[in-house]
Design brief:
With about 260 residues, this protein is of the alpha/beta class. It has a single domain, classed as HUPs (Rossmann fold, 3-Layer(aba) Sandwich). Helix content is about 55%, strand content about 10%. It contains 13 helices and five strands. Strands 3-2-1-4-5 form a five-stranded parallel β-sheet, sandwiched between helices. Helix 2 (about 45-55) packs across helix 7 and helix 10 (about 210-220) packs antiparallel against helix 11. The longest helix has 23 residues, at about 110-135.
Length: about 260
């Protein structure tokens, strides 16, 4: 890991305090009653849930597995909510997915496309709960995922407030340790849970530690591709691929363009 990506204890404490205050202020100023967090049993959602609880606002967890979700993930999500005193709703979305596959996809959707359907279904269920309780939906995306466009448009990207979007994945892991997230969650291979056996790092072709370093130098420090490759000892084509992915996914990070005719 790059030294620049290591967060000292005082920075972690400051981030925790400030983000918790921001969540609270946002809810109060916008006249909402609380927040909804999709809890997957993974690292990012665990950190966001902890920060939400620290904000002092009413928090509701949404645990939304399908038939392919590992039981350990669901159990960890439930246990985390219970230990934090968070009320939660458990919804198996498999019947919804089956209905969509039967009526709309008719068996023609590929694995990736259908994975997006799952992400959008979770978003829909999160917002049903939010609408019922006059709440906002907190996002669980990190900076690595956001820059790489590694999220579903109008799925897990469809939220009201991105809580940890300024932190790279490796920094979220540091924050998780600071917040005393259970070790079983911290050490679990990151996955979006979109299909059996899917992992984030396999999808992206490198570890989060490698990807974070490339993104930090390329985006935050504005280094050239060759400079990044030389500094990190990776092939130029690897850095080019990351740069291309960031550029091609820009539309996912922006509001829809409005066509104006003069």
């Amino acid at each position: 890991m790059l030294r620049e990506l290591v967060l000292p204890k005082d920075v972690l404490e400051h981030f925790t305090e400030e983000v918790s205050k921001i969540i609270s202020r946002y809810v109060v100023r916008q006249k909402f009653n609380g927040v909804v967090v999709g809890v997957s049993g993974g690292l990012d959602s665990a950190v966001v849930l902890k920060l939400a609880v620290k904000s002092g606002v009413k928090v509701h967890g949404m645990i939304i597995p399908d038939d392919g979700t590992k039981k350990t993930h669901v159990d960890d999500a439930k246990k985390l909510c219970e230990n934090l005193g968070v009320e939660y709703t458990l919804v198996n979305m498999q019947p919804i997915i089956d209905s969509i596959e039967k009526t709309a996809c008719r068996g023609e959707a590929d694995q990736k496309s259908f994975g997006n359907v799952k992400a959008r279904t979770r978003m829909m269920l999160n917002y049903i709960q939010a609408n019922k309780t006059n709440s906002i939906v907190l996002g669980t995306g990190n900076r690595t995922e956001i820059l790489m466009g590694y999220f579903t448009k109008y799925g897990d990207g469809g939220v009201d407030l991105q809580v940890i979007g300024s932190l790279y994945k490796s920094q979220v892991r540091q924050l998780a340790k600071h917040l005393e997230v259970p070790e079983s969650i911290i050490t679990r291979a990151p996955t979006a849970g979109l299909w059996p056996g899917q992992t984030d790092e396999a999808d992206m072709g490198m570890t989060y530690s490698q990807l974070d370093a490339i993104l930090y130098l390329l985006i935050d420090q504005d280094w050239k591709v060759g400079e990044v490759a030389s500094k990190l000892g990776v092939g130029r084509e690897v850095v080019e691929r990351v740069k291309d992915t960031v550029e091609r996914s820009a539309h996912k990070r922006n509001s829809p363009d409005v066509i104006r005719v003069e």
